[in-house]
Amino acid sequence: MSALRKPAKQLQDQTFRTAVKYGSKKIRTEINSVVLILTMEYSNKTILITGASSGIGAATALELAKYNNRMIITARREDLLKEIADKIVNLGSECLYLVGDATSEAHANKVIVEIIQKYGTIDIAILNIGHGPPSNLLTTSAKAIKFIMEANYHTFVNFYVPILQQMKKQKGKCMIAHMNSQATWFGIPMQGDYTAAKAAARIFVDTARMELQHFGIKHILLQTIHPGFVATKASKSDGIPVPNEISEEETAKYVLKGIKKGMNQNIFPLGTALAAKLGRILPRKLLTKILLSQTPPDY
Ligand SMILES: NC(=O)c1ccc[n+]([C@@H]2O[C@H](COP(=O)([O-])OP(=O)(O)OC[C@H]3O[C@@H](n4cnc5c(N)ncnc54)[C@H](OP(=O)(O)O)[C@@H]3O)[C@@H](O)[C@H]2O)c1
Fold first, then answer.
1. Which residue, 91, 111, 86, 93, is CA-closest to 163?
2. Rounded to the nearest whole angstrom, what is the distance from the C-alpha of residue 152 to the centroid of ligand 1?
3. Of 204, 119, 94, 193, which is closest to residue 159 (Cα–Cα)?
4. pLDDT-based confidence at 14, cuts 50/70/90?
5. pLDDT confidence tier of residue 38, bands split at 50, 70 and 90
6. Strand intervals (E) in 34-80
7. Torsion-angle region of residue 71: left (phi > 0), alpha (psi -120 to 50) or beta?
8. Looking at ligand 1, which residue's alpha carbon is closest to its atom 20?
């Protein structure tokens, strides 16, 4: 078997043994940093999930609650948030729920201060808040378009900044994952403002990841999560076509898998991922034709 064909784990072990044999501290350190970046356990951790009162955020919180974590969940609807917090405790994790509007920088800063006062560190932050109702860029007001940017991009940035400053002070590996979408690679009719906001966040995270590398910060992993269509209450009956739709629970399992593997981009399910990839390489005219064939005649 050629070295190139060996499974990754075997190769890693072999390289590590070679490094130890020859006493190469440099190689050992490099191998360790690769392992450090490539995996992220999600048990016995302090985990923040924003927008966890319903949908994907709530389902992911409940899935992570099975692994003895210290969970912090946020959203505006206190009654729903409290219900999820009770379920998290019943599943065996601790839970702190913090109510507030993430379009406010002050709210996000306060959440981070409270977490640090109580737990000292943040291991994983899933910045999940977002909103994508159908829109028509020929009729939508500037106010409505800017609201979508606020709901999807500003809510992310408000949390990202203080969390990153905090994680830079920490030593152990940690992760910020942003809940993006597959409506991020190119514009989609009925979702023009939403795709623009998600694309902005994707490019932001990609660039921040490059800068972490440039400044030698290896213990922080930045991930974008790209679900296809998910059957949540929010997306139900909004009139947007939903090919290959998956459930909230399936989505949560994909999210956990992506965290564990330390992916830079977690794109799922496969069918939608392949279609989106194809869309990126198709000639623009053909892509437009396909997208318009799926678009309702009026909205
Ligand atoms: N559903 C899909 O098909 C799909 C596909 C791909 C990606 N996504 C992304 O997945 C994420 C979750 O979507 P979802 O479908 O699960 O919708 P959802 O059930 O409406 O979840 C959105 C969550 O964000 C919270 N939220 C919204 N605005 C907020 C604000 N200003 N301040 C604080 N919390 C706020 C909501 O709670 P409160 O209302 O209680 O504040 C709720 O907990 C979004 O980023 C969405 O873009 C969804």
1. 111
2. 9
3. 204
4. very low
5. low
6. 46-50, 70-75
7. beta
8. 234
Q: pTM of the entire structure? A: 0.89
Strands across the sheet containing 220-227:
94-99, 70-75, 46-50, 124-127, 174-179, 220-227, 265-268
Tokens of 7: 């499974």
Predicted local distance difference test score (pLDDT) of residue 239: 79
Question: Which atom from ligand 1 is nearest to the alpha carbon of 59?
Answer: 16
At 29 the three-state DSSP class reads helix
**Looking at ligand 1, which residue's alpha carbon is closest to its atom 41?**
76
Nearest to 121 by CA among 179, 63, 65, 70: 70
pLDDT in tens, 144-156: 999 999 999 999 9
Tokens 């784990």 -> residue? 9
Structural domains of the chain, with CATH: 36-293 (3.40.50.720)
Give every CB contact of residue 267 below 8 A, 6+ residues apart in sequence. Answer: 182, 226, 273, 276
269 lines ligand 1 (CB under 6 A): no
Query: What is d(CA 76, CA 285) in angstroms, rounded to the nearest whole number?
Result: 42
